[in-house]
Structure formats: C-alpha cells, structure tokens
Amino acid sequence: MLTKRIIPCLDIRDGRTVKGVNFENIRDAGDPVELGSLYAREGADELVFLDITATNEKRKTLRELVNRIAHHINIPFTVGGGISSIEDVYLLLQNGADKISVNTSAFRRPELVSELAKEFGSQCVVLAIDTRWEDGDWWVYLNGGRVKTDRSCADWAREGVERGAGEILLTSMNNDGTKQGFALDITRQLAETLPVPIIASGGGGIPEHFAAVLGPGKADAALAASIFHFKEIGIPELKGYLQEHQIPVRL
Predict the structure, then answer these.
(1) Which CATH superfamily is domain 5-244 in?
(2) Most-buried pick from 35, 110, 204, 208 (CB within 10 A)?
(3) What is the pLDDT of residues 164-179, one digit of tens each?
(4) Buried b (16+ CB within 10 A) or exposed e, 7-44
(5) Which of 45, 51, 88, 130 is catalytic?
C-alpha cells in the first residue's frame, strides 16, 4: 500500500512565511529557510513553497529564496507563484525545485499545463486549485482567492489532468485556516474520479482531521501550514497518530 504524505506549506509574502484564515487576516509565521529545514529534519515527506502575491504583483517567484531553501532540505520541493512559461520552470528547477505548481496562469491559459507536461513530464506539474463552496457547487477562484470564475472545481480538475497535470493540490477556501477539518466531500470526489494523486489543503487542525482526509476522504497527501508553523502539532507526533490509526505513513 502506498504511504500517505504529510506536506508542510510555506506561503511566502515579502520573503517571509505568512498564514491567514479563509485567505484573509495574514500574519507572520517565521523565516522560510529555518522552517523548511526544520520540517525536513522532522520527517515531512515533501515541502511546498507558494509565493502568494506573485500573480497579483505581476512578478516572478522569488528564485533566490527558493535556492536558499533547497540547499537546506533533502525532500521533494514543489514551488508555485507567478509561473507562466517553460522558461519560468527551467529557472526554478535550476534553483532547486523538484516540481512546480501552477494555478491562475494555467486557468487563464490551459495550454500551459500541456506545454509544461510535455517539456518536463507530468510528474513535475502540480495543478493547484483554490475552490469555494457556494450556490450549490465548488467553484474555482483565482488570484489568491480574489477572483471567482464560472468553472466548477471538478470540471477544471478533470481538464487539467487530461492536459497532463500529475497531481492536484486542492485548497478549500471555506476551510482554509479554520482548523475545523478538511473538505472531505470534494476531496473524495476528485480522488475517486481522477487518476492522479490529490493533495488536500485547508482546515487541518488536529490529528483526527488528517486521519479523516487521508482515510475516508481518500486524499493521497495532506498539506498544512499554521499548525506546523506555530508548533501546535509536530510532524513526528502527527505521523505517530496516523500509524496508530492504520493510515500508512513513512516514519
């Protein structure tokens, strides 16, 4: 049986790790190099770096910071924010990224997913989707959760995978930062209908939430931020809990 992954996320603004609730009320959470290094030592399976203001500020991801973090970790490293071309990806891979995450740019120009998958392989391309439940469906949001679209999450995820995305990073905006649990319904729906791993993000607060999304929610990985940044749960403690509850993890 494949082991489930625990993935800390570094949301970056102005070179610092930050965290908010429902994509708002952002506060400082520490130095990204120190945090990334700590999580690698603690047994995180992967690390995700998201430059959360790159798209809105119409600039590229902070590649120097990516390079510094990469030199302090020995686990797979996914980087996202402001990526819109093959050239952008080459720069990030040269600076230590193992995979890249695309969100708004891919939605605006879906061919980007196909181009990146052809150039680098599907295993390198993570399609990040920010989604909110309202009016009876899960809708896709862009620009760091600021812009609503008319595409349903399930519909866009299916197209992204058809175009070559190798993983889906699914963030529920309703659950993000609330620590009330992950969005099990949409996570399970994508996991059951798509042939690629689903990374669940948004809402993890206690070990039971991770067991729920990795078990009944059928996610392949669970991503979290503030509970790790603010030392509410340690990665070894979380993995120990999951193992005790028959969720296969790498210890």
Answers:
(1) Aldolase class I (3.20.20.70)
(2) 204
(3) 999 999 999 999 989 9
(4) bbbbbbbeeebbbbeebeeeeebeebbebbbbbbebbb
(5) 130
